[in-house]
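Chapter review: from sequence to fold.
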Amino acid sequence: MGSRRIGKRRIRSLQDAKQSASDEWGLVRPAAIACAGLSRAIKSVQLGQMHGFGIEDLSDTPAEDATTALWVRDTDNSAAIATVSNDADFTDGAFSITTGGTGGHQTAVGTNTAPWKCTTGKPWWVEAVIKLADHDATEFFFGLTETDINADSFHLAAAGASADRIGFVKAAHNADAVTFACSANAAGTISTAFDTAIAYDTDNDQLGMGIHWDGAGSIHFYNSAVTATGTELGAWTKNTSVSAGVPTDSSLSLCLLLETGEGSTKTAVVNYIRGAWTV
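The token string follows.
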């Protein structure tokens, strides 16, 4: 019959036949982001109940200065983390993070290592799905950061040395706008509106977020629509691409930060946090 080669696109379509062409994030994210060890060329980490016994006791996740843990958390001001097994939307499992009870108290969970780098020819991907219990009293950051995760309000810190970050930001607790950060030393931005505005304006809405470094000079931000509880998340589309202020000289860790803007605790429920990078 002769020799016939199957192209990469055809292989991808066979691997994920149910993929929708409108799900632009699904077309760029590797399957290895959700399954460690699937590819020798891509390493990945996952935090979420669906990933097995190792995180069923999330309350044992150590403080941010631990030296023997893969995941760590900001434990200041009695911040808490817990497994959620009965969430109506995240039926494959979830976990919650909760701040302290005074305005400005924060919590965060993230990787204890910093393997993400914006290196030419070495793409990476990170993703998360969350919902906020009190949208107009809560700030958050999801993405990559050079800063230790327990640094106070690092999501609001001015761009500068040792403060590089790339991520989704809800910078004001009493405003609905979710913006993006992409900073390298003093260059770039800590909060700029997306090309297509994201307004997180209702308690317990779901939001999917994805970020991709293409290995060729640009960061691409993807997101789902802000989706009401009780409704399945739809396609994630590319929102904004940036090439200015990309931190090419930093080692970055994966992090989700939550901060209360009021005198009471605030909670986010998290379906998963995942990240992958090319080796």
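Two observations follow directly from the output. The chain has one domain: 8-278. Helices lie at 8-15, 24-28.
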